[in-house]
Amino acid sequence: MLTTSDPPAPVPPGAVTGAAVIETTALTKRYPGGVTALDSLTVEVAPGITGLIGANGAGKSTLIKILLGLLPPTKGRARVLGLDGQRDAEQIRTLVGYMPEHDCLPPDVSATEFVTHMARMAGLPAVAAKERAAESLRHVGLHEERYRAVGTYSTGMKQRVKLAQALAGDPRLLLLDEPTNGLDPAGRTAMLELIARIGAEFGLSVVVASHLLGEIEQICDHLVAVESGRLLRAGSLTSLTQVSQLLLVEVADGPAGRTADLAGELGRRGLEPRPDGRGLLVPIVDEATCDVIRDAVADLGIALGRMEQRRHRVEELFRPADLEVTDGR
Amino acid sequence: MAADATGVIHDLGYQPYTGPRFGRAAVVRTLTGYSLRSAFGLGRGARAKIVPVGVFVLMCLPAVINAFLVARGGTRAFPYDTYSYLVRVVGMTIFLAAQAPELVSRDLRHRVLPLYFARPLRPADYPLAKLVALITAGLIVLDVPLLLLYVSTIVGVHGPGAVWHETVLLLPGLAYGLLWSVVLATIALALASFSGRRAIAAGAVAGFFFLTWVLSEVLGTVATGPGHAVTSSTAAHVAGLVSPFTLLDGVRLALGGTQPGQVPDPGAGWGSGYALLLVVLVAASVAALVTRYRKVGAA
Known about the structure:
The complex is a heterodimer. Chain A is of the alpha/beta class. Chain A contains 10 helices and 14 strands. A 6-stranded mixed beta sheet of chain A has the order 6-7-8-3-9-10. In chain A, helix 3 crosses helix 4 (126-139) and helix 9 (258-268) crosses helix 10. The two termini of chain A are 16 Å apart. By secondary structure, chain B is mainly α. Chain B has one domain (24-298). Helix content of chain B is 71%, strand content 0%. In chain B, helix 6 (160-192) crosses helix 7 (198-224). The longest helix of chain B has 33 residues, at 160-192.
């Protein structure tokens, strides 16, 4: 589902809006002292795995806390799983699993005991809580270690326990705040695989907040990018990396300066090439653009190394000036 | 349950939970029960049990001594209302200084609270569940020894009349134990909730109870002179205002307690003042707790 930065049509109160798991309308949060953490954020999050991407301090954690009903918004509205963020906060919290960014585990209890307790805090009866705790810990890959005190765990194991406690209450939606924090590369990969599996096999919707785009784009279906509390970009990963109206032209190995010659020649033929790495980016004017380039290359006697229609890279989300997204056609 | 490392793991896949789910009230009750267990170190390592079990044994000692004396034909050695005042002051100070931080500082220190507040609980539910748990724990520490005292006494008396007489004396003693527990646990929990460092929280609780108690004793001694007789004077009544323990003792005397106490009988006038101050102390502590967690919950 496509998300937009424009306010959607007004939804009648109480209406369950089909597919979106999270919907915010002009959500604003100002902290006393004048810091604006969220600034008229309007975004819709579809089921699946969604990356919430932004630099530290962009408002990711504030958004998560408002979604959980832990913070009241200054203005605007949030709906989670079709429920009103303020009115139905308690019900939302039974349906949402939350993994905070920071350490949140007491060191003197075993993982089994802690996760069981947290499942009971989500309203599960004692026996069911025990079963689900064992199951969640198995899903995150903790086996015999789960009977040991959490204080003896490695960072990676602690992150798994944090994820397990979020899973144990059987949520419909998981909010994970920087789940790869403090992990080594192998641990990061394992955690990302685990999240991808939870999204794909468990059928849960997952929102992963992170400041590391390169890492969450591997597992996300959708991305929501925020900057200074404002929506920067949102959309499915394919729409964000869609084909652009640019041709990438690279000259095969040869005498230096041939790329510059080609740029000059293309300029004379009415195109506007600009250098990009070792090649040239040529905006597509019409259907004849490729032919013009072919003729120019042939006339100069250059060997053409590569010519392809370029896809946007997700990093360009953060360089909006360079982004020339089409409508995906 | 043990997964064999060399065996085949049959992954049944993810199964959603379809059973019943309790509401907020039941979750709060569960948290209260869990906290009551941890107040006695249950579900924790052996080290966590040393203080609560040690204090409980200490508090039972007078009852045990009584059992010996009654078995040798003596009469009941300790009253039901004051029991052993010194043992109670020392025991409750140690118990609350150790266990109030166990209930609240631990979750603050390790930042477990966001996990609680991300569940159906409301911010005030958490401190109130902890408070009920600590009051109950204090009640067990205070009143179970009284029951032992009662049982060890009635096995030595003869006739239903004598047993009835003991029962009539016991009941106000149990109620007075509840009053102690409510007052002391509430103050202790409020003090402990302001620090995530267990040592600081324990020091604050122990310091408050012990220092006010010593101060009250000193002022009382100055007011009544070096003799042992507790005489009634305005200065002595004022000295009783300083410590929760002397306030409790004053209220006991004002309500008709028969045993001589640590403070002179305050009578109805000063007695209502003592009671009012206790109510203010408890109310202020509850308000501080709830405010504190409204703030922490939003952090």
